[in-house]
Every structure is written in C-alpha cells, then in structure tokens.
Design a protein that fits this description.
The protein is of the alpha/beta class. It is 45% helix and 19% strand. It has 14 helices and 13 strands. Helix 2 links the parallel strand 2 and strand 3. The longest helix has 25 residues. It is globular. The protein starts with a strand and ends in a 6-residue tail after the last helix.
Length: 326
Amino acid sequence: MKKTVAVIGATGTQGGGVARRLQQSGEWQVRGITRNANSKSAQSLKAEGIEVAAADLDDHGSLMAAFKDVHAIYAVTNFWEHIGTKGADGAGEYEAKQAINIAQAAAHTSTLEHYVFSTLQEASAITKGKAPVPHMDHKSRVDDYIRKELPELAAKTTFLWIAFYAANLVGFPLIKPFEVPNSGGSYIWTQPTPATALLPITGSVGHNLGVFVHAILSNPKLTLGGKYLNVKTEVLSFQQILDIWSEVSGKNAVYAELGVDEFIKLWGPFGKEMAMQYKFGEVAKGDWEVLAREKGLLLTPEEVGIKQGDLKGTKETFQEMKGALV
C-alpha cells in the first residue's frame, strides 16, 4: 500500500510541481492541500488522480484534519501575497506564524515520518547584520523554532531552500525587462544592483522542485535530521541572465543599474524588499549556503541522486516560456 504525502499549496507553483512529480512517480498517494478545494486548479489536480483537501494555514484544526494519516508533508508559505497590505516585517511575521501553525500540526501527526519545509537562508546571520532581508530572515527563524521547540519534528525534517525563479523575468512586473519606446524593439532591464552581482537561480521551479522533493523522500537516511538542500541550477550575474533572456527572446537588451531609492519610488514595498535581497546578494557574493555548510548540514544534489541532466536551467526555462518573455 502506498504511503500518503500531503502537499501544501498544491495549486501553486511550488506545491503544484511537487504534487505532480510525486503523483507521476507512482510511489505515493498524493493529497494536495489548498484553500479552496472547489477551484478550477483544484479540479485539475483531481482529474490527474490527486486527492484534494481544503485547509486554512491560520486554522490548526483544519491542518490536523488535512494531515490525518499522512506519512510525509511538503510545507510552503507565501510572503509576497501579504507585503502589499502588511508591509515587509508584518508580512514576514504573518508568514512565520502560518509556518509555525503548519509545523505544530505536523508535530501532532502521529503517522508522520518526513517533513520537508520550503525555507530561505538567514540573510542577517550570513552577512553579520550588514544586509538583513525581512522575507528571508523571518522565514529562516522558523527553522530555529522547529529545532528548539519541536525537536521530534526536527529529527524528521529536511529544509529546502528555493533560489531565484527564472520565471520572475516573466511574471513579476518589477523584475521583467521592458521595451524602450521608439528604440526599434530593444529592451532594457533595470534592477538596483550591479550587472556583475551574482544570483543563485532555481531554473524551472515547478519541475526542479519536484525532482528535489522526490529525491529527498527517496533518501530518508541521508536527508532526515535537519539537513539542507538548495534548489539551484546555476549562479549567474545579472548580465548573464539578461544575455540568456536576449538570446532566447531574440531581442536586443541592455542592463542598466537603477538606484535603490529610485527603484523603491517606482515599486514601493515590493521594490524595497527586492533591493534588500539584492544588497544581501552583493555582500554574500553568490554563496548563500555558507552557514549550513559550516555546520555540516548541507547536502549536494548529487548526494541524493540528482544529476544535472535531471534539472531544467535558466535557458531551458526561458525557452519553455518564450511566448511570454516579451
């Protein structure tokens, strides 16, 4: 009999990729967790043979019901849907509260064997306070909560970092390159960081995350006990990212560094949060894994059986989204 895995956010980018990969493996009974089990996206999951259950991340009881008899859980929360109304720290605190609600419900699930938490690096600690980033710091503190307050759950946990989405250049307005009027079809990409700054890239989030979570659940002896993996395919400079975008789109494009104050004036709290992340990236110089590595908690993809050919990088992701690049 197949074991059951509950996947939070199953109608979203992360959860959807994980749910479908595990379903396609034939090794798991997948239960997709979503706010609205009657939505069109939820119905699509059902058509693929995935069980769908509704749960509210603010409601412990609904989470407990959704986790009934499950053996594994993939947990994800969303900072960005709250920043517009709550501000960066408010959104971070709210997201952390939801993440703790999920962890507490998981800790009370007697059948649970493996807990996979989608988290982020602690920017403040990595940069020794030089470059805090609210959405990273608040989420990473949930890792500490699990280790300190829920040690039995920590023993069953794998922490998973998700790098920069290549798809951000398609679906995130403040990151998308835009056409310059009267330029003959040329584009410009304006971000508040140097063209040479380095950025870890996840590539195709849905596909690659599914590969990672399947590998994690398939190798519990290696991945349990609070180990970390980083879902990334490349570390690229902003200029290199734009060069790939330009090659795939067929559009001439230039990179122009914009001042932080000007970027915030254009994009408000979203712009400020991204500018803070970019500042962190400049200080970290592309190595966002240093603390876990120093503690002996970092696993490489190769250690859990993932080969580079299993993943879709930035260029392949852009090629799959070519029609939406411009």
